[in-house]
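Deliverable D5.2: sample structural annotation.
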Amino acid sequence: MKISATNQPLSRRAAKKIATRERILETATRMFTERGYEGTTVDELAKAAGISKPTFFSYFPAKSMVLSALVEDTFDQFLIDAEALLAQDASTAERFSKLFDASATNIIENAELSKLLVSNVFRLMLDNTAEGASIALSGVRNALAAVINQGREQGDVNTFMALEAQTKMVSGIYLTTLLEWLGSPEYTSLRGQLKVAAEMTSQALRPMGPTATR
């Protein structure tokens, strides 16, 4: 999530560096979608972005790091959507329903690239590069934790489970749904799958007994 730490204007050099990085990522998004990740070389990517190969490597030491940056940016949108929902008067069940539906929309809009990005997250997990996977998924975990915590405060999420445990559980439900989607030839099924996941999440977090509130 790109939030400036201060209100001070950026220097010309800093602004140029940010613009160059964004241009590389935008170019990579287009080329990975058109040619695939394996079908895009660093030479081609640098040339299309209008920079030299050494300049490319000064921003991203490896092509795989471009992919990881795209993953991080994609899941940061999940956090942005969650923050908007937290500002609304709604139940936790409603927030999860809208959050997962927005996620489905974002993913389906560019299904081929999304499939590549989500696959990369699971590749990081399987390759035991836990740090890389953790960074990529930080936006998702932070978003889910924020929604769950607000639900705990407003009384429609149980408090007998620790917040961290609840966050891990819901993250597992969300990621398992994405994994199932990767194996499905019909990308549009993701919306329905995430709707079920949101309902499952709400049921799992619901308080027990008659004292449960909205």
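Annotation notes: The radius of gyration is 19 Å. The CA atoms of residues 33 and 113 lie 5 Å apart.
The annotation will be released with the project's public dataset once the embargo ends.
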